[in-house]
Design goal:
The complex is a heterodimer. Chain A is mostly beta strands. Chain A contains one helix and seven strands. The longest helix of chain A is centred in the last third of the chain and has 6 residues. The chains are: A mainly beta, B alpha+beta. Chains A and B meet through strand 4 of A and helix 4 and helix 5 of B. The structure holds magnesium ion. Magnesium ion binds next to strand 1 of chain B.
């Protein structure tokens, strides 16, 4: 099972209004985003939800980061991972 | 020949709920108005719930009897409207003629292009970007396109062409034709007209005798002769309010004259809203006294309306609040604002109000009588009390011009 986990995000808003996330903060830890690999509207199939889906690379792993209609950012997190911390 | 698509989001409310709660996928779920109450009704259901025989519009408690493990979800109108808008943004990339029918259905005119390919592209994008599925009908008129979207569910395209419509459409039950109500359906069956093919094979003149103008329409639809256009996108978007005002030849000194004028104004405003498929959420009353001082009062309505009865109730309440009949009035105006296009979202005024629907039938009948026999064919009893000077007075010509501007223009 996956959870929709809302996260704090730092982002750059460029002069054309394009938003690029730079880092994610989750439970006190900050992960910097090395690259945004893709961006499109999409459903969050594992955790549920829908929004603009950013495919981001953090270190060697790729993950989805969603921006929802209420301007909140979330990631899909395995329930076990969330509980173990 | 035209190429028309009709796109229908499958189990729309239920599908949107599943996008947000993946654990509901594949389960029998029903989106119900007020599930805490026994009187809640099923607004939408998933395929699994459909298989248990659950019908839209039935009571929650009978649905639970058919399917004890039914999961009942409260409706979230905001979400559905947002998904509907996202779909419409996608449609708009393919055509500037997109006509919504409720929140979850739209016609698109894509004449000159490959309808099948566009249909598949729409389905792919709905699934990829929103997580919902569509059934799309592709045909050469709106009626057949709609029938096509009913043929295969979920996530499918059906193409109805001049070559195949006799095999595909004619065996379908007559009641699947757009706009056939229950009463007409029973009469069709009584005459042995069970399928759409039966209607085409009937004699058009006897159809006319039996069903009047509806008979002609039925025949035309069944024969594939529907030439109604798909409305352009911008048609309704810019209109912000519908209003009317009048300056009668005499000063208005008491509530009964003011009230009668308001009834007239509300009748005309409501009739225009109905014609444009609008309902308003606010009512504004405008008054101008003999010193030419004017002021306005506004109120919010409980639910959006296109009925004169609702407008006049609100307008009269505003009048009593804002005018003590202590000084004569020169002019009165009524405006319906905060409009919603009922082709976009009337379904959301979820629980039907039986009184309002009776009033709607009454007022629509009045519209028809006015269209056929003129404004004086039918008018309110309150107007009989004195004479016809009010009928002649409203609306006055100089203000009629501003009214038209309000209907067709963008309010600045
Ligand atoms: Mg539908």
């Amino acid at each position: 099972m996956y959870l929709r986990t809302y996260v704090q995000v730092s982002a750059i808003f460029d002069e054309n209004g394009v938003v690029t996330p730079v880092s994610i903060s989750l439970r006190g830890k900050t992960y910097s985003i090395d690259r945004v690999l893709g961006k499109r509207p999409a459903p969050a199939l594992k955790s549920g939800g829908q929004g603009i889906r950013y495919t981001v690379r953090i270190g060697s792993s790729e993950t989805y980061l969603f921006l929802d209609a209420e301007n909140r950012w979330f990631v899909e997190e395995k329930a076990a991972d969330a509980n173990s911390i | 020949m035209r190429t028309i698509l009709h796109s229908d989001c499958n189990n729309f409310y239920a599908s949107v709920e599943c996008v947000f709660s993946p654990e509901l996928r594949g389960k029998p779920i029903a989106v119900c108005g007020d599930p805490s109450e026994r009187h809640g009704i099923v607004l939408a259901k998933s395929d699994a719930a459909k298989k248990c025989g659950i019908k839209t519009g039935e009571a929650v408690w009978t649905a639970r009897q058919k399917c004890p493990e039914l999961i009942v979800v409260p409706p979230c109108g905001e979400k559905y409207v947002r998904f509907s808008h996202m779909m419409r943004d996608i449609y708009a990339e393919y055509s500037d003629h997109v006509e919504p029918f409720g929140l979850d259905e739209s016609w698109l005119d894509v004449t000159g292009r490959d309808g099948m390919e566009i249909a598949c592209s729409l389905r792919r994008r709905a699934l990829k970007e929103l997580g919902i599925t569509l059934s799309v009908g592709v045909s050469f008129n709106k009626v057949f396109a709609k029938l096509g979207s009913d043929m295969h569910k979920p996530d499918a395209t059906a193409v109805i062409t001049p070559r195949n419509y006799k095999q595909k459409v004619w065996p379908m039950p007559a009641c699947s034709l757009l706009f056939i109500g229950r009463a007409t359906m029973h009469r069709l069956y009584a005459y042995g007209l069970n399928t759409i093919g039966d209607i085409v094979r009937a004699d058009p003149e006897s159809l006319h005798t039996l069903f009047g103008k509806n008979g002609d329409t039925l025949y035309a639809y069944a024969a594939g002769k529907d030439d109604a256009p798909v409305m352009p996108i911008s048609e309704t978007d810019d209109i912000k309010s519908v209003g009317n005002s009048t300056t009668p030849a005499f000063d208005i000194c008491d509530y009964s004259d003011a009230g009668r004028i308001l009834y007239l104004l509300c009748d005309s405003v409501a009739e225009r809203m109905r014609k444009k498929h609008f309902r308003c959420r606010t009512v504004t009353l405008w008054l101008r006294d003999t010193q030419l001082q004017s002021f306005t009062r506004q109120m919010k309505l409980e639910r959006p309306t296109d009925l004169s009865a609702d407008l006049s109730r609100a307008a009269l309440a505003l009048l009593r609040e804002s005018w003590a009949a202590d000084r004569p009035l020169r002019s009165l105006g009524v405006q319906g604002g905060d409009l919603m296009d009922i082709r976009n979202g009337a379904q959301l005024s979820i629980l039907p109000d039986p009184l309002a629907s009776r009033q709607a039938v009454l007022e629509k009948t009045a519209d028809q009588l006015h269209a056929r026999f003129g404004a004086e064919a039918l008018y309110r009893g309150v107007l009989l009390r004195q004479d016809h000077r009010l009928l002649r007075a409203a609306p006055d010509s100089s203000l009629a011009a501003t009214n038209m501007a309000a209907v067709s223009g963008r309010q600045s």
